Amino acid sequence: MKAILEFNLPDDQEEYDLAVKAQDMMRSLNDVRNYLRAKSKYETEDEAKWEAYNEVHQQFFEILNDNNIKL
């Protein structure tokens, strides 16, 4: 199976850039996920910091899920 994306440049430049950068964006989201996971898992000395990291980590996944993004 093949899928071909076609863009009319320069009119569709923004959509083209998004398609070309999608893999980099996914990799970046995964890096953020791993960072937040590590912080919420290992930053346990300071309860306030842990709660903040944990809250951001949970919100991160809620936002991804709301937008049908699966990492």
Structure description:
The chain is mainly alpha-helical and 71 residues long. The protein has a domain at 29-71. Helix content is 70%, strand content 0%. Helix 1 runs antiparallel to helix 2. The longest helix has 30 residues, at 13-42. The mean pLDDT is 92.
Helices, strands, pairings?
Layout: H1 13-42, H2 47-66
Number of E-state strands: 0
Mean pLDDT: 92
Structural class: mainly alpha
Stretches where pLDDT falls below 50 for ≥5 residues?
A: none
Strand content: under 5%
Q: Gyration radius, to the nearest Å?
A: 17 Å
Task: Tally the helices.
Answer: 2
Q: SSE order, as H and E?
A: HH
Short characterization:
With about 70 residues, this protein is mainly alpha-helical.
Keywords:
71 residues; mainly alpha; 2 helices; 70% helix; elongated
